[in-house]
Amino acid sequence: MTKTLPAATFNVGNNVLLSREEYIRKLRSRYEKFLKDICYVNTRESCTSDATDEIYAALSSILPATNRLPENLILGCTVFGGLVSKTDTLQNRIKVAHFSALVATFDSLMQASSLLSMPDGGARVKEDCGLFILKLISPATIQQLIDWLQTDQNPFLPLHPRLHMTCVTVVVRFVEVCLLEHELTESGFQIEPEMQGFPQHVREKSGIAEAYTLMVLVAPHLVPQNYSSEDGKADHSFFYNKIYPLIPEINAAVDKINDILSYYKEFEDEDECMAYISSTAKLKQITTYEVLDDLMDEMVETRKNCMAIAERSGSREVVATVAAFFQGYISFHFTWNSRYKLRELFGDDWFAGDCV
User: Fold this and answer.
1) What is the three-state SS of the chain?
2) Is residue 352 in a domain?
3) Number of folded domains that form the chain
4) Structural domain contains residue 1
5) CATH of the domain at 75
6) What pLDDT, on a 0 to 100 scale, did the predictor assign at position 260?
7) Considering the entire predicted model, what is its pTM?
8) Residue 100: pLDDT band by 50, 70, 90 thresholds?
9) Is residue 353 part of a domain?
10) Percent of the chain scoring above 70 in pLDDT
11) By residue range, what is the domain housing residue 121?
């Protein structure tokens, strides 16, 4: 995004204008309420991973030495894998971190500034994306993502083909929406008041949240001893009646909690037509702060719903997995400070975990 000069005042709704300093204080107060309401625990034990070194070493050995990912990205995704799935096996946490690194790299590659910096203006990358979507070929641009899909680097091969197919579908849609967002921006697209379904349309097309949900929530409970019974039929029933209903709720949380915790680093940037909070604010003709406020309330209710569904499963493992996801996902955003910049908002000493 293009950085603009800080506004002299910020509208928080009902034409209430605040100075930047006042706005920052109001933001912090609202974030603190959100964290309290969503049951976030800011302690050293709750905010750190017990496997950071092991995941980092594994990720470094998996990723190719040539065209190595940026160090900061590897560290951030190491933390992601370690925190959001703390109840899972080390092997699956490494797979989550690996997938996260590949997705984040591709997302960065498709940013306008990255494409424009290429000698051909990104023409080859865009062509590779189009060919991948149409024919599922293996262009070099996304070869590592394809390798992840086609091997046991992902947690669903070879025993769970339907869930593996969901991951394939998710990645294809993600590549397509990255290309779509770039082309819309290139075309000068502007969102209009009548386009009420547009923000959610773009969000749902990306679909990447579902892959994370499957890996973080479902993969730990594919292990037979985590089911309610050792009987195969009962296990199948338990999965679809007790685990699967969580997926839409967790999908929403993956997307919208990220919107909430990304807001601070973006609130002074020029609006992008694809940004969910800014586009929703334009459509509803309210301020971005009001959209943020509504999202926070919505996600507090989403967590309550998720915990209620998990508790009805009768499985302590399911309850622990869901609670650990919300705690870990929020901690991840605080930990990756170089990306989300939440230390600037909360102060250097507020967060009990480590920062990268």
Assistant:
1) CCECCCCCEEECCCCCEEEHHHHHHHHHHHHHHHHHHCCCCCCHHHHCCCCHHHHHHHHHHHCCCCCCCCHHHHHHHHHHHHHHCCCCCHHHHHHHHHHHHHHHHHHHHCCHHHHHCCCCCCHHHHHHHHHHHHHCCCCHHHHHHHHHHHCCCCCCCCCCHHHHHHHHHHHHHHHHHHHHHHHHHHCCCCCCCCCCCHHHHHHHHHCHHHHHHHHHHHHHHHCHHHCCCCCHHHHHHHHHHHHCCHHHHHHHHHHHHHHHHHHHHHCCECCCCCCHHHHHHHHHCCCHHHHHHHHHHHHHHHHHHHHHHHHHCCCHHHHHHHHHHHHHHHHHHHHCHHHHCHHHHHCCCCCCCCCC
2) no
3) 1
4) no
5) 1.10.600.10
6) 97
7) 0.90
8) very high
9) no
10) 90
11) 9-346
